[in-house]
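Late entry, evening session. Most of the bench is empty. Finally got around to the prediction I had been postponing all week. Sequence below, unchanged from the version circulated by S.P.
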Amino acid sequence: MKKVFFFCLFLCFASFFCAGTPARNIEFGIGGEAGFANNYMDFKEFFSNETLQIDLNTLPLKGLHSVGIMDAGLFFNFNIKQFSFGFFSGMDGFFTGGLSGEVARLFSEGNVNMRNFNGEVVLGGSIFFDTGVKAATEFRGWKFGVAPSLYIPLFYMPKPLIRFGLDTTESLSVDMSIRMNVYTPFSLEEKETRDIFNAAGADLSLFVEYALLPVLDVGGIMSHIPIVPSRLAYGMHIVSDFVFPQDTGEDIDESFIDALIKDKIPETQGKVFYLDEDFLRVYRPLRFDTFVRYKPFKNELITLTPTIGFSLLTIYGYDVICFNAELAGRLNLNNFFMIDLSTAYRERLWQHKLGLALNFRVVEVDLGAGLLSQDFVSSFHFKGLSVAFGLRFGY
């Protein structure tokens, strides 16, 4: 307890000498975040046990779902009084996968009570690279920002699907089909780097904020307003079909094993294709958020920021509108030591984050960790984790 007290006393003391540090005139920074969540495995067991055990009898009957996120980038800013200008570049990715409820029931219960199964395995994801410029200014209580950028989908999988069927009512019948398209900005055979730049798209992000009251700021952010879509001309079409009929119910297991031994199951075939003039047009997720920042002491010591908005996603080949909401709080000790806490529901993912920052003017270190899940209750049960790290340099 004494160590905690003296540490807090040190932060308060140091904050008065380090400054009320103003914004750096020149600033360079790097940072990144990665996270993974699912609705089955508890990460506490993963870290506490040497051996990871999976009990198929406890698979969720609604299906098994997982999601992964990643974000990494760098930036360079010039800050001169009420004006700022900078460059940025980075990558962000999103991956999802899952088994339908029928597949989970087959693994957990077998086919004792149910003789006919039709299930799906879904995979999907994307990786975007972007680079651009940003500018911001302040004028009579208003803040404006604009950030045009070029982006390239390095990997895009819109609607992959694996279907299978199992019927053991009177005899054994197994069928499976794989249909998967993976798109890239370059040829998977020739790997011409010039094709990457031909696939670039462009969009625009806007920011506005107004000091409505001494204790209240209001604002809005619109990200990825499309200007020109990215056009992907290359890809791979992956196809595989397997059908195993059985006339009688005798020696089912033995006959099925014989089929495996005799290589009667065809191998998955991948075909590289070129779309020519029929490009696949890809947009980044369009996001719109409005926020209110409450400053109870009329300064930046403590701020509370509720945010609401929506996102328009097209990752699966069709448009999906997601409602977003967040409540964030910050403790700022003279711009030297900062603590951030937030709870958010964004794009069907619950996230609870804790962030710490130490700012020595010449260098700033940012650390963050969080819990995440597609289900609100599971988000507190360590079924998803995220970590973040950032460094800023300048003066």
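Two things to note before I forget:
Confidence is low (pLDDT under 50) at residues 13-20, 246-257, 259-268.
The chain has one domain: 2-394.
Will write this up properly tomorrow.
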